[in-house]
């Protein structure tokens, strides 16, 4: 019920005197002797202080009168009749909370009646057990009451004077701050401002386009405008006021206290409702609006570097995109660590940021220091995982030095998930977030955008691919991040609807498309003066991948790369008749796999291709000792998995045996688990594995079940579908073990997990049921609703609704939850499905 509708039933002349009783009168004893000083709300309410005129019982009687007069005649109440007493009690408690708000009257008026009502509801205990109609009524009634209360405030004789004084003081403080900034800024001659204009224009142009791999066929653009291509993904984490995460993925460290404020079972009251405001899904590009310092993790291809581009262009834009205005006025410093540590020199000071990042502009002396000293910087440190592990400690000390020197800036550091430990930057106040896999809705959006960008000839392939993603699980398992989703789109269009099975086959097909068909599709002929087939190109380029991986690099000097190719050319028959320099130039400019980030360096267009080709080179040389020695190195995880795909059956068995032997000799459970999980996830890439090896490996994996804490649950989920057969039912498990088993299955995010999860629908523990509801968005909405959601005990259970499809599924199964957690993906259409339409009186 809207406040206006309540107002038609509550005539102001009749009801205003009731609400006015909540407030003290002007005059002696009213707490107004401070002259122009604003007055705390606790001093303005009549049921607090030494001279109070109302008791708590009186306030509850006043609430009863409000409810009675707004309910109308018999049968007209906007809420169930049997909830009248509970509604009255809750309204009284909400009104009493007016004395608990930490603000003054001027601040309250500035908030407005709707925001004040939200603050008031957050300060009061939750309306537990009430129907949706009752909750909506209470929200509207609180807004209506706040509207009158604010009017009372503004009518006080001293309010206007206080407001003017406070406004004048605020302006004086602002002027003083501006003067201080000017005083501290040596260059007030406009050169800084002029340079910043040129610098932001340079960044906007440099980072405004994005390569979407696969859109490189005839009549398709090489690069995509970033503002069209960018897809905002969700980031999850467990910051102190952040409830955006999976209910069982909070408190990942076993020593965290049991009173974690993000625990879904914490007491429902003021603390819980103050945090309700932070429960919306965290868009990765809005993370820095909520946290000054963020460590963002994500696997290869998840979109970390693209996010850095988006933040940079948003800060540089004159008119930022929706929601990105919080970066206006920030000066971005884009610092790719792979470039900064290429030669092993010291990491740069602020004055060296631009040259280290390849910016050709020359800043006024001391400019970067002034920007960071004033707290205007946006420091984007990309790719902790892309430097050798031995150098990461040095990078952290460099970062700590910057943080200690410059306060007030915003900082983002990106990394692959396992490159650094969980608390790596915790002492510096960083919030850790993780990019989530693309949801079904995000995949659909990406696929449609890709096909529009690829041109009219590609658009007819969009819907068949979306159908395949819904019905063919092996296809859906590939499209989990923007990189892989783009490759799936490109190959589906390129092969007229046929898609390879498995990740190795996907990469093979992508390489074939890039190396053998790219120029042919574009009718390019031989622009470099020579033509090389696919296999010799791979043989040569994998030498570069092998060197980079072996040396822990993702970039190498161009001169060194040329020497590696020159040494290999005589042994490659098809290339041996050409000058090595010409061969290198052809690979660099025509293969589609290499690029020049600077004039004297080269790297791969994406780390995934480097890992794939390094794995092939290692298998070709059969350097199994090298593979096993690096098994605990996060930079080698994907290399080892892909090596399994390249290896023959006997070689696969040897790799797996060596990994299991390394696990046996591990000194701690965490390392042992990591090695066993690495072997188990590598298993899915193998073409053929002896049954006894597979059974032994799965047996070792089963010994790690049930997981002991959320980190182990996430590691187990990496194994994928095979682990579902190893997960136990609820019988014999503690509540915590059941919760972690359910978490493992939901993270796998395959509909094949639904029968496993269905075994837990009768579990009495609220955290188990909360996990089952929260993970709904990862599965087919209708099937999950019927087999999981409909069978859960709704007692105290909050139902998270991410989108309209889930709202429609709730309506189909006839479920009207009392507690709802509505996420931003829900539109007005979905909200209408959740809000029952009452018949006309």
Describe this structure as you would to a colleague:
This protein is α/β, with parallel strands linked by helices and 841 residues long. The chain is built from 38 helices and 13 strands. The strands form 4 sheets. It has a 6-stranded mixed beta sheet. A hairpin with a 5-residue loop joins strand 10 (594-595) and strand 11 (601-604). Helix 6 (113-123) crosses helix 11, helix 28 (637-646) packs parallel to helix 30 (669-683) and helix 29 (649-664) runs antiparallel to helix 30. The protein is globular.
Short description:
With 841 residues, the chain is an alpha/beta fold.
Describe the sheet with the most strands: 6 strands, mixed
Q: How many E strands?
A: 13
Shape: globular
Kindly provide the radius of gyration, computed on alpha-carbon positions and rounded to a whole number of angstroms: 31 Å
* Structural class by sheet pairing and helices: alpha/beta
Number of helices: 38
Query: Any low-confidence stretches, pLDDT <50, length ≥5?
Result: 1-11, 27-36, 181-188, 214-220, 238-281, 521-525, 837-841
How much helix, percentage-wise, in residues? 40-55%
Give the spatial strand order of the biggest sheet.
Answer: 3-8-4-7-6-5
Beta-strand proportion: 5-15%
The average pLDDT score comes to: 78
First-to-last CA distance: 14 Å
- What's the quaternary structure here? single chain
